[in-house]
Specification:
alpha+beta, about 30% strand, about 25% helix, about 70 residues
Amino acid sequence: MFNETIQEVGRKQAKNILIKRSPYGKFWMFDDVTGKYIGIDNSTGEAYTEEFDTKDEAIKWLEGPGEKHA
């Protein structure tokens, strides 16, 4: 089931999404090691990830169409 809201997740949750490719949805987290924001687009089960300098950039990427990540 696809969750249409973009959710903040912690490091452990993000790791599980990347390993299990579940749950479907769009997520972001702040990586306190690198100081970057990580966007995770798992809306298709592919778990595309991208790193950003700001939360706004990560959210904007996640709000875009999934096809651009392919």
